[in-house]
Design brief:
With 528 residues, this protein is an alpha+beta fold. It contains 14 helices and 26 strands. It is 30% helix and 28% strand. β20 and β21 form a beta hairpin. The N terminus is likely disordered. It binds glycyl-adenosine-5'-phosphate.
Length: 528
């Protein structure tokens, strides 16, 4: 697939890849708001964009920073048992041999020889079309929430097209990795709708390679990290030797990861460059890992609620035992209902002692812990909550998007787009508006208010346009509070109202008059 994709194409593709009646509309609206208001746009857009890479604009950068800061505060600073780490993005290549990424970090890839498009085999779903007991052909679709429904529709269309009489059996969806060799030429390509052009699946390693130093030979090959987790394992001993930690304890890190995804899609959901927030929680090999696994699942869920992700959009998926990696004791994903389907948001894995043992084996450095109390030395086990900052940002953007009705300047109801971010996570906490920009006293007072609040929170000062328009712009930015400086503030409508302002609530649009001096403490209480 052409890695270069302009934004219009990306937008169209994003919307198209989301089947279902209203959800593609919703996703299209969210993507377009993100661009219009400066949350997210395609990387290097002036050159047509680069598929799987995204830039965060002024509001997006604030949103992401708030997510990171909140997580770091809750995960590291407010706890005694977790310390932070910032390891390098490029590590010794042996790290990735030990972790299994060089040998096994692959996705099954399929090419369409006609369209030259590339797919992940486990994202193509197909079924034989069985009419009156015989197979009349095959149908295929790309992964969505409506796989069976879409395949059934296509099967009915094939029956009509071939004018075959008889009873059509319900479709039996399988993914393309499960296709038998004789079925591969019969499955239509999702790109052309015709059979015969799909190659058998083959393993594609997703690590980005580079060279370290001046020589570009095999010995200089290194990788951009595909996860931050291995930094914590490789530095386990170094952190232990600082003497600050005792089992059970965790090492947490926020940082960029890179995966050469075969099919980046659904806006930022699956990107090639993204940011992770991961924590490795080391426990005794004799401790009850299930207790800790449950503890971290609950912690992650509560944290999501604390940043405004509604409980009703969340669910839990426990990976079936037979699909777990051989070393894994259990993995649970917290799932989020995105407009394009229910998808993984946060993975919480019980990884046993696999990673530390592998690094001990490959590096020759023992990765053990000595328990002073029991005088026992052992390799700790680990529970790992791993999440993408971009994926949380997308979940928060999707949760926040609302449309309601609000009166325009003439009192007629119009559709209002409002991003109902939790005040704790909102990019801008408060906007300050002078009622009119051509009244120097109003402007001066508004700037005084801005400066009063600025040391405590992100403030946006706006004097351009009618006040109603300014409110709407901040509604789209998701700013929870608006402060208007009017003639009452100047004392022109009575001395008792001097130095009072109106405080507007984004969600209810209600306004209350309060004293300027009360603003900072009142808002601080609401945003913390
Ligand atoms: N250390 C374990 C690990 O990396 P993962 O399930 O591959 O596990 C953890 O990734 C989280 O990182 C995912 O739950 C998701 O939130 C995020 N993530 C993974 N791949 C991503 C991608 N291509 N784009 C955006 N976020 C991604």
């Amino acid at each position: 697939m052409d890695p270069f994709l302009d934004f219009t194409q990306a937008l169209h593709k994003t919307a198209r890849s989301m089947a279902g009646p209203n959800t593609s509309d919703l996703m299209e609206k969210i993507v377009s708001l993100c661009k219009r208001r400066g949350f997210i746009f395609p990387s290097s857009e002036i050159y047509g964009g680069l598929n799987g890479f995204w830039d965060y604009g002024p509001l997006g950068a604030e949103l992401k920073k708030n997510i990171r800061d909140r997580w770091w505060e809750d995960m590291v600073r407010r706890r005694d048992d977790i310390v932070g780490l910032e390891s390098s993005i490029i590590m010794h290549p042996k790290v990735w041999e030990a972790s299994g990424h060089v040998g096994g970090f692959t996705d099954p890839m399929v090419d369409c020889k006609t369209s030259k498009q590339r797919f992940r085999a486990d994202q193509i779903f197909f079924s034989p079309v069985v009419i009156g007991g015989s197979t009349a052909g095959y149908v295929s679709v790309l992964e969505s929430e409506w796989i069976a429904e879409e395949l059934q529709e296509k099967a009915e269309a094939l029956k009509r097209k071939k004018a075959i009489q008889g009873k059509l059996d319900p479709v039996q969806p399988r993914d393309f990795t499960e296709a038998r060799p004789e079925e591969i030429p019969l499955v239509p390509s999702p790109a052309t709708g015709e059979p015969g052009s799909l190659t058998p699946p083959r393993a594609f390693n997703m690590m980005f390679e580079t060279w370290v130093g001046a020589l570009r030979d095999e010995s200089a090959i290194a990788y951009l990290r595909p996860e931050t987790a291995q930094g914590m394992f490789a530095d386990f001993k170094a952190v232990l030797d600082t003497g600050r930690v005792k089992i059970p304890f965790g090492i947490a890190q926020i940082g960029k990861s890179f995966r050469n995804e075969i099919t980046p899609r659904n806006f930022t959901f699956r990107s090639r460059e993204f940011e992770q927030m991961e924590m490795e929680y080391f426990i005794s090999d004799q401790d009850d890992w299930q207790k800790w696994h449950r503890y971290w699942i609950d912690w992650c869920r509560d944290w999501l609620l604390s940043v405004g992700v509604p409980e009703s959009s969340l669910s839990q998926y426990d990976h079936p035992k037979e699909k777990l990696a051989f070393y894994s004791k259990g993995t649970a994903d917290i799932m989020f209902r995105f407009p394009f389907g229910v998808q993984e948001l946060w993975g919480i894995a019980a990884r046993g002692d696999y990673d530390l043992s592998q690094h001990a084996k490959f590096s020759g450095t023992p990765m053990t812990y000595f328990d002073e109390a029991t005088k026992r030395r052992y390799v700790p086990h680990v529970i790992e909550p791993a999440v993408g900052v971009d994926r949380i940002a997308l979940a928060i953007l999707c949760s926040a998007y609302c449309e309601d009705q609000a009166p325009d300047e003439k009192g007629n109801l119009e559709t209002r787009v409002v991003m109902k971010f939790h005040p704790r996570i909102a990019p801008i906490k408060v906007a300050v508006f002078p009622l009119l920009k051509n009244k120097p006293d109003l402007v001066a007072k508004a700037k005084e208010t801005r400066d009063l609040l600025r040391p405590h929170m992100t403030v946006f000062y706006d004097e351009a346009g009618a006040i109603g328009r300014r409110y709407r712009r901040q509604d789209e930015a998701g700013t929870p509070f608006g402060v208007t400086i009017d003639f009452e503030t100047l004392g022109e409508k009575g001395p008792e109202l001097k130095d009072t302002v109106t405080l507007r609530d984004r969600d209810s649009m209600k306004q209350e008059r309060i004293k300027m001096g009360d603003l900072a403490p009142l808002l601080l209480e609401k945003i913390r």
